[in-house]
Design brief:
The protein has 165 residues and is an alpha/beta fold. It has a five-stranded mixed barrel. It starts with a strand and ends with a strand. The relative contact order is 0.25.
Amino acid sequence: MGKIYFPVKEPLELKVMDKIEIHGKIFCGRDAVLPKIARLYQEGHLDKLDIDLSGSVIFHTAVSPAGIGPTSSNKLDIESSIPILSQAGVKLHLGKGSLKQETAEALNSYKSYFAVTPPVSALFASKIISQRVVAFPEEGMEALYELEVAGLPAIIAIARGESIF
């Protein structure tokens, strides 16, 4: 399993079915905040939140006292944000479920990837080193969080225009 430390500075060279371990800081958000982040990027106001998406990971999840686990990435508000957030610098989107071909093509055009991970909240909770809310605290557990993780497992599902779906 290849270890990847985020945020990444160099281009990733991943292929479908690569097993990876995620280390470093990741963002967590889902349908309540990802469209807001995408809109702020499009309007040129993302810097007001002091968020740098360059080389980052966004895990499609809420953060609750019960832990974290992937939500369906093919929900309209999440999947429609993936191309915009990839353009903003996100290198890895992490969630579950199949994505549309046009989303795979957008990922490819921005040299970004989509990885899936099973819903195993207890395992994921043991991989969290720290967490903090970075934006939209009014959304509660669906706010945008930044986590520091060590060894979060995932499998690359979409890479270079190819998909396992």
